[in-house]
Fold each of these.
Amino acid sequence: MRLKMSWFNKEIAIQNFRSVGWISIAYFLLLLFTLPLSILMMLTGEDDNFANYYDDLISFNIEFQFMMLMIVPLLIGLFIFRYIQVKPMADFMHSLPIKRLRLFDHHFWMGYLLLFLPVILNAFFLVLLYFFSNHQGLIELKDIGDWLLVYFMYGSLIYTVTVFIGFITGISVVQAILTIVMLLFPTGIIVLIYSNLDLLLYGFSQAYAWDIRTSALSPITDMLDYYYYEVSWLRLIPYVLLCVIFYLLSKFLYLKRPIEAASQALAFPQLKPIFKFGVTFCFMLLGGMYFAEVQGQVGWIIFGYIIFAILGYFLSEMILQKNWRVWNAWRGFFTYAGLTTIILLIIVFDIFGYETKIPTGEEIEGVYVSEDGYSYFEENQFREDNKLTSKRSIEQVRKLHEALINDKQNQTINPNYHPDSKNIYLIYYLEDGSEVVREYFIQHSQQYNELLKPLFETQEYKEIQEPWMSLEKEKVDSISLNSPFISMELSDPIKMEAFMQKIKEDYQKRSYEEMQYRENNIYYAEFQINDEYYHANFSDQDEETITWIKENFPDFSLAAEDLLHLVILSENHSEEILWELDNWKEGTDYWILEETGHIETVLEANQSIDWEDNYTVGVYDKVNNGYLYTFQVNKEDMPALILEKMK
Amino acid sequence: MIKVEEVTKRFEKDLVLKELNLNINKGSIYGLLGSNGAGKTTLLKIISGIIKANSGKVTIEDKLIFENALLKDKLIFIPDTPYFFSHYTVNQLADFYKNTYSSWNQNRFQQLGKIFKLDPRKKVHRFSKGMQRQVAFWLAFSTMPEVLILDEPFDGLDPVIRKKVKGLIIQDVAEREMTVLISSHNLREVEDICDYIGILHNGGFVLEKDLDDLKSDVHKIQIAFNGDPPEKLIESLNIVHQEKRGSVNIWIVKGDYADVDQEIRSYQPILKDILPLTLEEIFIYEMEGVGYAIENVLV
């Protein structure tokens, strides 16, 4: 065959270059300025420390690089396949003696080349810089490889998705918007569904659901999470797979696509209902989420669902019809409303018994409980390792869970936080390997004290709560004891053992309330095992420990003589004032006690754990001449002598 | 050569062409007439292999046109507003066509340049609408197509250029047996060059005729008798239309000229005059015959 009929058509390549070459050239220059040139400027500059500022090449002007990384593939994808969106051009291109798939490959790969040529050229410059610079600490070959990988991964996916969406729609603007939506969709829809389940299902743990690192599901959010992971070639696999899938799907759609779809919002009429109901559904969820965040009352949330669903429905209708006047298209909306109401009712009336489910005692292998809600810093394995397994604890958790379920009526969606509010977070590990996860917010934990106390005071829970509680004495290499003024080392095995004995006993004695509210833990012990350190806080109230320390290290503990003064605040003042006594305002009620005797009396008074009718006492020490800690004393418990002084 | 069989095309819910049939012989010039929205452009795009019919088939030389690069290599379609890549000069476009169509004839391109008198180094977008259309013809003729499909080609061309282009078309048809399909909403524009005419209305052909047959077959007869015209004569002639002005009858009659003439003579009319019809008149009467008023179908 003649050259003309071969795969490559030089003139089409020229046309491609004329239509997207400018993006490619601009991209090349921007990259050149962002990386090779700025690195060159640093290398020739005065500051020798720059190597410490950047870990890798992405960190150079990271926001700008990410912006380019998102926009350039999108732009090239839009412009290179512009010919299928503009009617006269579509007619012209498809009247040429070239088959569609050849046209596709021609455009696709030219676009791809123009997208990556600037990146590859810049990588080449970086390699040159690496070889010619003496400061080899600034760029490593591995950095250049990682940088290329990041550009390749995200660039390829965003580009292929843009192309793919191009075959679904016939309008470039819609193509751009749908591409972004599509790229965000996997993460977005999960966010929407979870946050709405959180509204509708009592006990649903949204945070737990996040644990699968939802953001990785969408290339854009994945990219923004860049700091949280290592660049690895393994991450390339799903990206390459997706690119291949979208590439093949695009070809498939091209063969099916009517050329006259140019300038239609959707090229395939079959997609219209999916698009319309999809948009409506997402808007509805968004509305629910918005009103729950902003207002939080059930009425408003329902209002949000309805209004946003209507909004989404008519918006999608307007896009499809390319017309403002779509108000007569009501019928579809009623179908949608009917279906959604059924789904919502299934969830709200909890047909599947999600809300009332408590696993039976026999099913449960163990249960993890946290009173601070879900923590992103904990690994799942950590939770599983720290589950409660004793029959007693499990039974106690079940009782608590039952009480929480019965308390559903008192729940509001946007509760107020109080100092004693708690997020009870439960994971039941069942014998069959499955998990049941629930999360409940308790506005006033004191109402649950009866149930919380026996659970949190068990030895089992305490050991889980404080990792040092389960340390074996023989394995500890050394212990350091620390007060605000002094730090000392214990290395004598006998003394170490004795100290651990005491501090463990004291911790076992601590009541639930003390575990919660004690603020004067001004001492801490640090246990060292190999390179690991464990912290144990304690205070003068841990009597066994303090007595033992006083016997062995008379200098250690803080006596009333060491204190400069106490400041007593009446109840309506913010504690923050205590940290900046210099800015003391006129007219506030406070009293300063300086006599050692008085200080001792207050320190010995019963400390309060209630949040009402209290004096706040600030403790200041002489050595550092500063604020140490505060504690609360109930008005009734304040010694008469001091009350006298305060008048 | 071009065969359209039972072609139906819908744009979503709108039925544009319904079970349409069309046959165009090699070396003929077919005029596709119809008012706006009759489906002319859609039909031309289907025949050019740009869009696909929902059902039915379109073949050129017995091969399906859709996605057939070898066939499309011999076919040029000029749409009602010709498309050019933006910021291309005529020369650059010529390079594109040269690379894309195997039968490109550079000599012809240069010769035609003298006829069209346009600067090939100028960007096409700088040209006026009519000049752009000339560029489209220039490029099309230079590719030496076997099939040329033109959508409303003479809009916006001045009479001189119009004549030139028509001349070029006729020349190619005569010399190389090029097959041409021209659409228009205006009969007068194409009657001098087409040898077949089809009238498209609401997605189907209302009428399809060989023009030579048409012209010799229909006659306007002015005739007067002593008293009423004989019933027998009226029955024996195929009269598609009749009027009476005073004692003179005006009949539009179909049939062979000699036969009609002889038949009439035998009744010895007082006055007899057989006149040829203009194409437009023929169409008006033909359309009446199939139940359409021409002003609804053609502009």
Note: Chain B has two domains: 2-202, 213-297.
Amino acid sequence: MKHGSIFFLYVSQYMKTRLTYRVDMLMEIMSDLLFQAVNLIFILVVFGHTNMLSGWSKDEIIFIYGFFLVPFAIFGAFFNIWDFNERYIVKGEMDRILTRPVHSLFQIILERMELESLFGVLTGIAVMIYAGSHLDLSLSWYDPIVFLFMVLGGAFVYAGIFILLASISFWSDSRTSIMPMMYNIGNYGRYPVDIYNKVIRFVLTWILPFAFVGVYPSAYFLGREEWYGYAFLTPVMGAVFFGFAIFMWNIGVTKYRGAGN
Amino acid sequence: MGKYIEMIRVRFLMMLAYRTNYYSGILIYSINIGAYYFLWNAIYGGKGEIEGLSVIQMTTYVAVAWMARAFYFNNIDREIAQEIKEGKVAVEFIRPYHYLLMKTMQGLGEGIFRLSFFSIPGMIIVSLIFPIEFSAAFSTWMFFVIAIILSFIVNTQINLLTGVMTFFFFNNDGLIRAKRVVIDLFSGLLLPISFYPGWAQNVMDFLPFQAISYIPSMIFTEGFTGSAVWEAILFQLVWAVILILPIQALWVIAKKRLIVQGG
């Protein structure tokens, strides 16, 4: 209960600060939209030259991209702690975090949220509806519930990976570029894994499971039964990765020694 | 002239001091090249060629486009915006050099650094992993060198233009971000221009963006041959000259209506 009310207090505070600079916020949303449009244009142009991508049609690829946008938006809104090392470890801000009455990771999420990123949920759903209407997909009554689980699973996979990487900073505070690298690897998950070779496919499924953010869960909604096994694993992978990340974070916090003065 | 060369040197040395940051950059670019390599392979499927490019040429195109990006890419638009916002630009006005030229030289210093510590080693690494074809013809390499120098000029000019606009908008982070996305798409970094539908190609013929990535990459992969090469370089040259006009015009107006917000 305490966490819930603190969360909403932070959200309202966040809204106030952001709405003070409306133009700025609008520009940010616009540039996000532009970025998402670029990826769509890429898919559209490419399919001007081919009908199938390893057995996936244009609308299916667009659907996968649309799905990917939803968990990615949730991740971007709450778990985007790519600058954790610099901001909290190097500058010693972690000291302050540890004096707060809530869990340290929860406190950081409160401070670092970027709610405008949630706009991507709408874009993603719009893209999925567009692609879905071309594909004649039918929805069952339980599909929205499945969708919720899949999205949360995907978002938690992303969050788990980034929290794990952030936790490394507790042991070594030297600057690394792993975080930006992860964004680029994350892009691999936007396309069907069958286009990659075996090693990359294995990595994307079990080690850095970005495939669970895009192609695997989408396969369920696209009725691709050969991938159902992986599709239903999505929430499990999310829970496992997120749980493991929290576990490592908690160990890491005990190793934190503080920096600077 | 001497002072500008000195600026190139200083920026080069500054970058050299932080060179470890760049080793991971090579890895990031390789990851991107890898993603597009697999994607393009799937797109080609069994097809021998699309729009005159074979799959090996396409892989080469992707690799060289990214590695050339390391050379022409710079953040001087952001730097200019920052200096205008902080009011530092007022001091720059009274210094004995042309501010925009000085920024260009700093960008060039950065570019030369990345070319030698990023693009060239990166290209060697990438060529070991992916099937990439290097041209054996001396003329191709010569044209490529000319083309990437011109691509640096055009890209820098567009950066200067976006940067100088801060004088009028005060806060143009959005514009800078939008510009970056537009350049990635329309310069040919993500997709060769010849892959776009005809009407889009016609529109892009009237825009400078393909001078940045498409032309040098097509020359390198020998997608352009014969007179097409000359035409492409002429295209770049014309834009490099045309773009001087709006920059100079905006600069003159900006100097008159400069409002220093602090500093």
Note: Residues 25-255 of chain A form one domain.
